[in-house]
Amino acid sequence: MKFQNINTFLLVLAIISVTGLIFLGYTSTSVGYKDKRFCLNLTKEHQENSKLQLPQGISYKQPSVVGPDGKVIATTPWLSPIVWEGTFDPFLIDTIYKQQNITIATTVFALGKYTQFLKDFLESAEQNYFIGFRVHYYVFTDQPEQVPEVKLGEERQLTVLKVPSSNRWQEITLRRMEKLEKLIESRLVSEADYIFSLDVDTKFYGRWGSESLGRLVGVIHPGYYQTPREQFPYERRPESQAFIPHAEGDYYYGGAVIGGLVKDVHEAAKTCREQLDIDAAKSIEAAWQEESHLNKYFLYNKPSKVLSPEYLWQDFKPHTNEVKIIRFSQVIKNYAAVRPNP
Ligand SMILES: *[C@@H]1O[C@H](CO)[C@@H](O)[C@H](O)[C@H]1NC(C)=O
Ligand SMILES: *[C@@H]1O[C@H](CO)[C@@H](O)[C@H](O)[C@H]1NC(C)=O
After folding, report:
1. Residue nearest to atom 3 of ligand 1 (CA)
2. Suppose 246 and one of 23, 61, 141, 230 were both cysteines; which one would form an S-S bond, judging by CB atoms 3.0 to 4.6 Å apart?
3. Where are the transmembrane segments (predicted)?
4. pLDDT confidence of residue 30
5. Which CATH number fits domain 66-338: 3.40.630.30, 3.90.550.10, 3.30.70.100, 2.10.110.10?
6. Calpha distance 37→61 (Å, rounded)
7. Residue 31 pLDDT greater than 60, yes or no
């Protein structure tokens, strides 16, 4: 008797499951709108599961960026790709991502005299950055009238967002995460799929395309890719939320680039903003402000894709053997002429 009940129960369960599957299949193929929502939910779940979090205080060897043979290393020890020239087929990867009909939001902060960098930044981006994709630039500035007219390609647009002026560059840096967090909440969740937040005192010299896309993306700073981690310019005072002990660290990430899915970059920006606020309440400013907090975030929330220093160089740095192509680089600037304070 009992046995039969169980059998009946299982049969009913099977029928319900099959009916459910048929129903889902039916709605997702016949109604485009539902199809989209269904897929979005799956993606969401997938994102949750693929976070690469590491507890603090775990000891392991510092990963190398260049091997003993002088060859570049193309994966992290947690198996995220490190993007170097030669590790991807630009045409193939762009063709795949173009199928996804994505929008890439790109934010830059151009306050005070930094507006002078916008022209080269935007013009060189129009030559090199996500060519053939929908790109929406969001320019934060206190001087909207200084934003130059730059001819944008098809499906590319620019929005100017006015922010208050500041007389300390450190303050400007400290507020960026907050601005990013709020912009994502108010607009980007519905306007974009991926986001890159980039420094404006830069120029593109080479292709930067869909190979850079990932859930959470950081760039290896060009100044420290062969430096032992105990010498990284991390924040070393335990009182700061950005503190990293000498025995920990993977790469020193550049604060000039942060990217990924809108939701994941929001999480990173929100966390960094919260940590910056805690420090501010204690009157502590981390060694490299936002960059220090970002390094802390990336150490315990590993990027799913790491960009090699090809994606962040510095114009004053001589070329090296490992870096075959410079795609994006910080221009040489006269700090005294562009910063509101020393
Ligand atoms: C997607 O997920 C949200 C929250 O997790 C839920 O409210 C919504 O009903 C789901 N949509 C579909 C189509 O399953
Ligand atoms: C692609 O995305 C844009 C902007 O989000 C939208 O207007 C357009 O309808 C989409 N096209 C397709 C084929 O889904």
Report:
1. 41
2. 230
3. 6-27
4. 46
5. 3.90.550.10
6. 43
7. no
- What sign does the CA torsion over 216, 221, 225, 231 have? negative
Q: Running DSSP on this structure, what letter comes out for residue 187?
A: I
- Answer yes or no: is the C-beta of 128 below 6 A from any ligand 2 atom: no
Q: Ligand 2: does its nearest atom lie under 6 Å from the Cβ of 103?
A: yes
How far apart CA 90 and CA 310 sit, in angstroms, is 15
- The response to whether 200 counts as a known ligand-binding position is yes
Please identify which residue in the block is written with the tokens 């994709």: 133
Token representation of residue 99: 């199928």
**pLDDT score for 234:** 98
Q: DSSP states of 208-249 as a string? A: B-GGG--SEEEEE-TTSTTS-GGGS--B--TTSTTB--TT--
Confidence at residue 61, expressed as pLDDT on a 0 to 100 scale: 97
70: tokens are: 């002088």
Q: Is the CB of 205 under 6 A from ligand 1?
A: no
Strand order in the sheet with 313-314: 202-204, 328-330, 313-314
Pocket test for ligand 2, best of 33, 35, 101, 194 (most atoms within 8 A of CB): 101
Q: What pLDDT score was predicted for residue 318?
A: 93
pTM of the model: 0.83
**What would the two tokens of residue 230 be?**
């105990």
Average pLDDT, integer, range 123-135: 98
Buried b (16+ CB within 10 A) or exposed e, 133-147: bbbbbbbbbbeeebb
Residue-wise pLDDT for 70-118, tens only, equals 999 999 999 999 999 999 999 999 999 999 999 999 999 999 999 999 9
Atom 4 of ligand 1: nearest residue by CA position: 41
51 lines ligand 1 (CB under 6 A): no
Place of tokens 């890439």: 104
